Amino acid sequence: MNIQRKYSLPNCTLLLEGLSDVTRAAQFQEMRPELSILVNAECYLSGYNQPLTGGREFFESLVRAVSGYAQEFLSSVSNPQAHNQESELVEFQKIDGNLHRLIIHSESTPEGFDRSNNSKRPPIEIDLNTVQLFDLVEAVDQFFADTQTLPELSLELQPVTRRYGGASQAVIKQAVPAAVGVSSLAVAAIAFNLIPPPQIRIPQPQPDEQTSSATKNLNPPASAAATPIAAATPAPTPSTANEKPAVKDLEALLNTVPEITDPSQLRALNRQVYNQIHPAWTKRSGLQQDLVYRLGVAADGAIVGYKAVNKEANQGVGQTPLPNLLYNPANRARISNEPIAQFRIVFTTNGVLQVSPWRGYAKTPEVVGAKITDSNITKGLNQKLYNTVRQTWTGTPTFTRDLKYRVAVNKEGVIADYEPLNQVAFDYFRETPLPNMFNAIYGSNVAPPNDKEPLAHFQVIFKSNGKLEVTPWKGYQ
Fold first, then answer.
1. In whole numbers, what is the pLDDT of the chain averaged over residues?
2. Section 367-375 average pLDDT
3. What is the dihedral of CA 182, 294, 309, 142, to 10 degrees?
4. What end-to-end distance do the CA atoms of the chain give, in Å?
C-alpha cells in the first residue's frame, strides 16, 4: 500500500512517500499504517517552484545536516555533521547572521534550479533566511514526532560545552521567533548543555498536530507536562472532584480499539457531533485560516479525543469548544475498548462548521431503525406532514437556496426526527417550523431521534420562493 506523510510549515513542506513492511503490518491492524520503507522524499521551500527530491539516503542526510547546522547556528560552535561533504549528500554553510546556504550533492538535479551541462553536475545551492531555516528544522521535528513514519530512524545530537554559549545570546533572540518546534528548542538547549541529549522517539504529539483525548484509565506520564496543550476538564461535581479526564495521544487510543466504519452509524454520529459542537462554538470571528481537527467519537456520541491537523488548529484551539466538550469520566462510564468513530471537523473562517467522517462513507448510508413501508400508509402520512408544515411555515424566506431536510414521522404523523441535508438547511433551520415541532416533543432541538417504533421518512424542501415540497424518502444522495 502506497503511503504519504506530509509535514508542513509556512516556508517548508516535507513530503515522504513509501510503503508498509507487510511482514510487520500483518501483525497490527492500525488506523494509520506505518511507513517503514521510504521510496521518495521531497522538500518544498518557499521561493522555489520545484522541490528537492531524493531517496532514503538523501532524506537521512538532510535530517542530519539540518539538525547539526541548527545546533551549530545556535551555539556558534562548529558541528562537523553540518559540513561533511565527503560522506554526506547535504551540507550547510553560514553566509551571514540571517542567511544560510543549503547545498545538495546529488547525481540527479531537479528542474527549476541552476545547473550546468557538465556531465559531473555541480551541487544545488539554495540560500535560506533564518525563518526558512527553522521552518525546515520544525518540519524535521514533526517527522521525528511521528512514530508511524520510519520509526527505526533516529537522530543523535551531542551537546557542546556550556562555556561557548555566552557569545550567542543575540543569535538566540534572533532565532527564537522563527523556531518554536520541539526539535528547535531541544537543539538550542543541547547547544548550551542545558539538557542532556534527547531520547529517541519521545512519545509527544507533533508540534502542529495537537492531540488530546480524555480517558480515566489512561493517565499521562510525568513528562506529559511538556505536552503543548492539554484538554480542558469540565467542572467536576462535589462528589467527584478528583475525577479528571487524562490526556493521551488520540492516535495511540485509536490503535488499541476497533473503529466504527458502518456508514449508517457514522451518519447518525455525524449529526450528534454537529449538534454538540455547533451551539457551543461561540467565538466564530477572527479566524485567519480554517482550523481542521481529527475527532474521536464513541458509539454514544461522546467526544473522546481530538487532534489538530494543521498548525493553525493547534494554535487556535482556544477559539473552539473542543476542550470543553471532551467527555468527563465523572458523568459517563470510562472509555475502555469501545469502538471509536473518526470525524473531520473544520471551523471555517466564515463561521461555518463542517463535520464529516474522517475516511468518508464506504457506501451510501441508510437511515437506522425500523421503517413504515406500506404505500397506503406512507401516502397518507405524506399529505399529513405537508399540511402540518404548510400551516406553520409563515413569513418571507430570507434564504436564496432551497433548504432540504429528511423528516421522519410515526404512524400518527407526529414528527419523530429531522435532519438537514445541505449546508443552507443547517444555516437557516430556524426559519422552518421543524425545530419547534421537534422541541415540543423532546424538549430539545438536538435530542436523539425516537427509534423505538417504525417511522416513515420523507424529504422536505423549503424553497426560496416560499413553496413547500414533501416527497417519500428515497435515500441519501
1. 75
2. 89
3. 30
4. 30
